[in-house]
Amino acid sequence: MAAPAAAKRLYRPPSAAAEPNKRHRTAAAPVMNGDVVVFAAPSAAPAPQLETESQQQPEQPLLPGLPDHLAQLCLAPLPPRLMHAVCRPWRRLLYSPSFPPFLSLYAVLDDADGGGVSFAAYDTFSGRWDALPPPPMPSPPPKLWHPSFLSRRLPLQTVSAAGRLVLVAASTQALSPALSRPVVFDPAARPGSPRWRLGPRFPFAPRRWCAAGAARGRVFVAGGVGAGYDATDARSGAVWDPAASPSAAWEPLPPLRDGRFSRDAAEAVCSRGKVCMVSLRSRGAKEGAVFDLAAGRWEDMPPGMVAGWTGPSAASPDCGDTIFVVDEERGALTAYDWAGDRWRTVVESERLKGAAEVTAGGGRVCVAVDGGQKVVVVDVTSANSKPRYGNSSSSATPRLWEVAAPAGKRVVALHVLPRMTRAEETCSS
């Protein structure tokens, strides 16, 4: 059951040097890029910490002389950054369920003090992390660490699909699958109503260390292993639409050719109507597979794609369906060229070395580095909204900036999703 919106913990930047009631931000307001809201570079990035909200001001009309439902129609074309800066009534409207949402960065977090997994969303306008209510977890709950494997984190596999965050696979302390059905977070849920819900049971045995991703708004799961290895489980797969009715069931996929996608947690990224995945995330010897959504069949991955898949990967429709991979050793963000079966370097930076997680959306690629202590954001768009990596005549270097993780937390997964709706008392300051 979701916690009341007024009871949320809010991660806010430190304000020791600020005037009373004045807010510091870790990022500037987003800017508009066509119909897509993209993240803007910050002027400063102090580490967020816990603060309380200022007192709510008396309610004011959206536009004097107009009823609010007509005022909303007048305000809808305005840039969200302008609305956030003008007044509290407009700010409340910006976070209301009836207003078109902007994009936010969502993170799965590990407590540095061993407090377990938590979830938060980074608001690029206010420059703060908002804690998500805890999801309904099974018993025993998923674990991110095992006492006998101190050097390796147990993956909690999450997918962003249809504007929702979906938990699909995890491990218990006994190294058994922790989830028998997906757990879904809906950012657009009205304040005070449940934000988390349980999805339908998987059509196969629960698993962990599978390939998981989103394909045309649907959750895609393939391969994996249960409490023990089973060849049938390791070759099975299914898709599910989290935006469908609660009674909607998983649709099975044709079996994988073999069970090699059961050795590690892997991303399944969708590009050009094909779902692509590799059996290992690291530089070790790996194999790839491609599922053609239109033909409904598995194919071999192009050799150039396999060779250049040297780290965590992501893809997003608003980034031209481009597959991005971050080479954690070189610190290079690369983009795949289907026509030439090769990878092109978008940017190479020391700041990207040690990349552990990556997500893409809103014209930005967000990379968790330094053991999850911060997120490096890479601007992969140009002034004309075309990716720089696709314009060989452009010599401009993509901008990079950083967002610190919430104090005492480490980022273990990242997603770009619509902003959370808020109760009026939590967005009026």
Automatic annotation (TrEMBL):
<dbReference type="InterPro" id="IPR015915">
    <property type="entry name" value="Kelch-typ_b-propeller"/>
</dbReference>
<feature type="region of interest" description="Disordered">
    <location>
        <begin position="1"/>
        <end position="27"/>
    </location>
</feature>
<feature type="region of interest" description="Disordered">
    <location>
        <begin position="45"/>
        <end position="64"/>
    </location>
</feature>
<protein>
    <recommendedName>
        <fullName>F-box domain-containing protein</fullName>
    </recommendedName>
</protein>
